Amino acid sequence: MKHKQRIFGDSNAGSLDTVADIPTPENVSFRYELAGPFRRLPAFLIDFLLRISIVLLGFFFATITGWVSADFAMTTVTPLVLLLWFALEWFYGAILESLWNGQTIGKRIMRLRVVSVDGRPIDGMQATLRNLLRYLDLMPFVPLANESGSIIAVHTFGLGLIATSLSPRFQRIGDLVAGTMVVAESTGALRRFALNTDERMLEVARALPTSLSASPAEAKAILAYCERHQGISPSQRDELLSPLARNWRQRFSLPLDTDSVLLVHAMYYRLFISDHVEPAKTESVT
Amino acid sequence: MAKASRILERRQQDWSELASLCDSLESRQSSVKAHQRTRFALLYRGACADLALADRHQIPPRTVSYLHQLVSRAHNQLYRSRRFAYREWIQKLLHDVPFRVVHDRCVWISFALFWGLFLLSGYFAWNETIWPGFAQSILTDAMIDQIEESFSSPISADRAMANPFMASFYFKHNTGIGLQCFVGGALILPGLTIEASNAVQLGTIFGHMLRPDVAARNNFVTFVTAHGPFELTAIVVAAGAGLRMGWGWIASQGMQRLASLRATAVQSMPIMGSAIVMFFLAGMIESFVSGSALPYRFKLAIACLSGLLLVIYFFVLGRYKRVIA
């Protein structure tokens, strides 16, 4: 816990169940964003529809060849389609995930990936195990009898849902046995430092001492506030910042009526953007 | 110390280069040239270092989470999945699996369960006085009629089912059942239930069809003899492997429960692999031999031969534990 805090400075990261921390050989620990059952459902449905349509296409093709030569369709095409069906039914995920570094077509589209719980890539054995064991996750099967008396088993995904919500890394039974987890590979954009050059703020920034320093905790608070200040209402801003600002006004012997919000922005500017503040333009004074 | 915004300005070019390399590695691997790959490794290490020093350089939280995403993406491209080791698997199938199967109590439990229920329900179905209507209550009248109907005429040349279609159908259907037994075994009860229900159904069909008053009796025997040994053994082995996997969950042998389940799952996978091979052989025999118009003597010989092969496989190859070099 201590270690994590030192690296991320974010004490909450360890207690959330939507992230997994992975220490790497490069001596850094990074965070994976875990994918829960409902984030994985679209990928599963894409794969499912794809498998079904391949099999249907196969039978369609067999029917067409059947018009040309019934014998050929029966002895060659249909058996191949049946074998393909079997392979897709049980080994679709296993084959694709071991070839494509933990991704099936659906996972690729939805930007998900299967990795080992220790962050390493999965091997063929893990891919096979987790995909075979999906059959268990689909249980319990609810039997629905149709009119002719034959029974259709509806796959409820009940065990899988229970397992994903109880396990620490959103793992279903197959994941637990194979030692894998599904992570989301999101590609967020890099945000730059916002450059606020309000003249009133710059005035405060000029009044701050030349050799300005802030404790790590203060710096963190300033960064966290300035990234999110747009979502905070003015009265709340004042309430949040006034204890900090009071402290700084005293320390830097600033006028007592210095605005708290401007002061924090000025600190942000001086600490993270530039030590040097342009001198005030004479025109604006007159 | 440099200002955080300077550091970001300096580093973000590298980061976006790494991100675009990740993009091209994710979409088309072969398009990435060798010098780009070495550059990728360099940039990855750089991003790792940035992440490690993020706190010291006072990098804003959102940039830190951007770095986390970037490093995890690059990590997934740098360390890639290992394929299935085919040669190792053949070694395992020939040396490791027979020994495991013969010396595994779970396989014997599965054997006893399957054959016990098979013989018992077969006897009930055969002998009408002990439990009248047993076969009808297990199978329903419609199903019995259908089975009797399908064996009503002898398997002659013009009605022969010896074709790849039936082979693939049998393989798909039976291996599906075997895999269900195996996978269900991870939670023990589902596996045992699937195995037991199959044993009872098969036993009842056998018992009923072997009754002296059933006309299709001879045709039935002619059909089932040849592929019986492989198919029935495969089901027993598959369910036994599943039970072994699930047992790892109960008897953890000093490990954490989940770690133990993981270890036994990896051990029992090759056993399931051998069951799939047996299902495949059974499917081939079922369609090309059982379903053909070959004389019964020949089919019986095939049955004896496959039984002999199984005995050699399990009891000769599996007699001693070999050390795989």
Describe the structure in your own words.
The complex is a heterodimer of chains A (286) and B (325). With 286 residues, chain A is an alpha+beta fold. Chain A has helices at 2-8, 37-68, 70-99, 105-109, 124-132, 134-137, 158-166, 173-178, 199-207, 216-228, 234-251, 260-273, 282-285; strands at residues 19-23, 29-34, 112-116, 141-145, 151-155, 180-184. Chain A folds into two domains: 35-184, no CATH class; 199-285, no CATH class. The two termini of chain A are 57 Å apart. The model of chain A is unreliable at 1-13 (pLDDT under 50). Chain B has helices at residues 4-27, 34-52, 61-78, 86-102, 105-126, 134-139, 141-150, 164-185, 189-209, 217-224, 228-250, 257-290, 296-316. In chain B, helix 8 packs across helix 9 (189-209). The relative contact order of chain B is 0.12. At the A-B interface, helix 1, strand 2, helix 3, helix 5 and helix 8 of A face helix 1, helix 2, helix 3, helix 8 and helix 12 of B.
